[in-house]
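Table 4 source record.
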Amino acid sequence: MAVTDHATPRQQQHRRHPQTPAQRGESQGWDDDGREAGSGLDDVEPLSHAEAVSLFGEQALRPSRMTPGRVVLAQVAVSLLSALGWAMFGEDAVPYGWSAFLGGAACFVPSAFFAFRLWAARGRASIGGLVVGEAIKVLGTVAMLVLVVMLYRDLRWVPMLVTFLLALKTYWVALAFR
C-alpha cells in the first residue's frame, strides 16, 4: 500500500535538509514584526486550492448553509418540542412544560443575542468582538439560569436541565448539516 505525501515542495525540502535559523543565516533575536526568529511562523505557507481539495475534499471548501440565526431557530424548535413533550408526558403538565421551556430559553436567548451581534458586525467582525460576544453569551446563560431558579417557584430540575442540554447540543447537530 503506497503512502502519498501531501506536503508542499518547501516542506519536503525542509524534511530532507533540516536547518536551524542560524544555519540559514537568520538572526536569533526578535524579528521586526514582533515574532521570534526561528519560531517556525515564517515557514508556514497557506494551502493552495489544489492542496486543500486533495487534503479535505471539495465539499469542505464550500461555505456552510448553517448560519448562527438558523442555529438559534433550531434551538428554539428543540426547546419547544422538549417543553411540549415534558408537558404531555410529565406528572404535572404546566410546571414540567414551563421548566423545560425556561431551560431551553436560558440557552437560546443568549445565543440569539450573540447571533444578532454577529449579524450587526458582519462587515467589521474581529476576534475581539467574537470573544466579547461569547463572554456575554456565557454570562447571560448563567444569569438566566440563576433567574429561573430564583423566580420560578414550581421549577422542575430534570426537565429544565434536560432541555437546556438538548438546546446546547443543537450546535453539534447543526455542524453536521453543511
